[in-house]
């Protein structure tokens, strides 16, 4: 039995939910999102909560059960509060700045990295060494943050690079003389 799948997803105040077949559409103060579940689960809306049940006892149905419930919960969270990923830059001369819809990153390369921010995601730089990625779609926010981090991931010797806020980097000892 899926522990996650068993819990119903409460519909917050100010959010309208529409279920038609396998498609769940959610509208809230921050926007509208939708999710189409596989045929392995049944989705119902009752008493101000969305419940997900597996169709059958196959392994795939049980896998989709918890995943579908989590996706629906992410829709509810996204249209009410949104999602946020914070990145920090460490290294001498490493910095970030927003110019219009382009994030300009100085990461020790011979050129400046220009990262085009996709639609539906907001990127801000409160400080030169901080990047904040916000949006209503959890997957898109996480993917944009991962794409930015990919330009210069943290290295294990000096810890230079782009890392998630609060991320621990296992440090290695350098060469001995």
TrEMBL record:
UniProt entry tagged with the keyword Ribonucleoprotein: yes
Keyword rRNA-binding set for record: yes
Family annotation (Pfam families) = Ribosomal_L6
Q: Keyword set for this entry?
A: Ribonucleoprotein, Ribosomal protein, RNA-binding, rRNA-binding
Quote the cellular component terms of the Gene Ontology held in the record.
ribosome
What residue ranges are annotated as transmembrane? none
Q: Which domain of life is it from?
A: Bacteria
Give all residue intervals belonging to the Large ribosomal subunit protein uL6 alpha-beta domain: 11-82, 91-164
The record's annotation in InterPro entries points to: Ribosomal_uL6-like (IPR000702), Ribosomal_uL6-like_a/b-dom_sf (IPR036789), Ribosomal_uL6_a/b-dom (IPR020040), Ribosomal_uL6_bac-type (IPR019906), Ribosomal_uL6_CS (IPR002358)
Report the family membership: Belongs to the universal ribosomal protein uL6 family.
Role played: This protein binds to the 23S rRNA, and is important in its secondary structure. It is located near the subunit interface in the base of the L7/L12 stalk, and near the tRNA binding site of the peptidyltransferase center.
Fetch the HAMAP family from UniProt: Ribosomal_uL6_B (MF_01365_B)
Q: How does it assemble?
A: Part of the 50S ribosomal subunit.
Name of the protein in its database record: Large ribosomal subunit protein uL6
Give the originating organism.
Albidovulum marisflavi
Give the encoding gene's name: rplF
